[in-house]
Amino acid sequence: MDSATPDLLDERSLSKLRWRCRRGLLENDLFIERFFSEHEGRVTVRHARGLEDLMALSDNDLLDLLLQRKQPEQLDDERAASAQALEILHVLRRPHPARHSAP
Fold first, then answer.
1. For FRET with 66, which of 5, 21, 24, 84 sits at 20 to 30 Å CA-CA?
2. Closest CA to 35 of 101, 22, 25
3. Is the pLDDT of residue 90 over 90?
4. Is 99 part of any domain?
5. 15 falls within a domain
6. What is the CATH number of the domain that holds 55?
7. Burial (0-12, 13-18, 19+ Cβ within 10 Å), 63
């Protein structure tokens, strides 16, 4: 990544993006909500483009990507393989950090 400051989304744009990312399958929503919870203050225009590319997919195709049952190049929609979509997909697929509980 270069040293230039990325273009962060303003609060209004972030709110609109969150709304556009709402899905019909709870499983997809869980992945997306985790992304926003972990990265909300650092979402860039590039991230937004990647999310928008992924949101163009059907719920089932998106879930297949998130669960790694399919790869972007296996889908009919080329937007799933855009550079921005691949970056976001990598972040969305990351395992949730293990939660430690007190013994």
1. 5
2. 22
3. yes
4. no
5. yes
6. 1.10.150.250
7. middle
